[in-house]
C-alpha cells in the first residue's frame, strides 16, 4: 500500500489537483499495474483513505460535473510524500514496488536529500551483504539441508545486484544527472508552475 499511497499522492501533486480517473489514467500510463500491482480499485481506495487521513482534500473543480470529485494534496500530504520517498529510497528487501515509486518521484526532492537517502540505502545494503555472505557460508555449520544454501545464495546475489545498482544511481545523482527539485521548478513530479 505504501507504493500506491506514494504514487497517488505524487500524481495529485504533479497535476496540481486531479480527479480519480485522471490519477488512474496517468499511473497506468506508467505501467504501474505491472511493476507496482496498482489497479483501478487500489487507486480509488487510496484516494478515499488519504482523504480520510487528511493527506488529500476533496473539492469540486471547475469542469467537474455531477459525481466527479477532485483532490488536492494538503500540508499533511506533502509531509507524507516526503516520508514515503525517504522510506522508498532507503528500504531494502521489499518487493520493488515501493522502490519503483520512489525512483519515479525522486526528482521532486532536492538533490542533496536524494543523495543522502541513497547513501543510507548503500550503507544498509553493504551491511546486509556482509550478513548474507556470512549466513551463506555457515549453512553447513547450522546443520541445514544442502539445498538451503541455494536460498542464501539467491539472497546474497539480490543484495549484490541491488548494491551495484544503488551505487550507480548515487553516482549519477552526485554527478548532476537528472533534473531535481532544486534544479528547476519543472522537475518531473512537481506541481505545475503558474506564471
Explain the overall architecture:
The protein has 195 residues and is mainly alpha-helical. It folds into two domains: 104 residues, Orthogonal Bundle (Arc Repressor Mutant, subunit A); 64 residues. Helices cover 62% and strands 5% of the residues. The protein has eight helices and three strands. It has a three-stranded antiparallel sheet. The longest helix is centred in the middle third of the chain and has 27 residues. The radius of gyration is 20 Å and the shape is globular. The two termini are 35 Å apart. Pfam families: PadR. This is PadR family transcriptional regulator.
Task: Produce a short descriptive summary.
62% of the residues lie in helices and 5% in strands.
The H/E string reads: HEHHHEEHHHH
Whole-Å distance between the termini? 35 Å
On the 0 to 100 scale, the average pLDDT is 89
How many helical elements? 8
Anisotropy-based shape: globular
Low-confidence parts? none
Question: What is the second-level CATH architecture of the largest domain?
Answer: Orthogonal Bundle
- Please give the CATH class of the largest domain: Mainly Alpha
Give the neighbour order of strands across the main sheet.
Answer: 1-3-2
Q: State the helicity in percent bands.
A: 55-70%
Binned strand content: 5-15%
- Class computed from helices, strands and strand pairing: mainly alpha
- The CATH topology of the largest domain turns out to be Arc Repressor Mutant, subunit A
Largest sheet entry: 3 strands, antiparallel
Secondary structure tally: strands: 3
The tally of structural domains comes to: 2
What would CATH call the homologous superfamily of the largest domain?
Answer: Winged helix-like DNA-binding domain superfamily/Winged helix DNA-binding domain
Radius of gyration equals: 20 Å
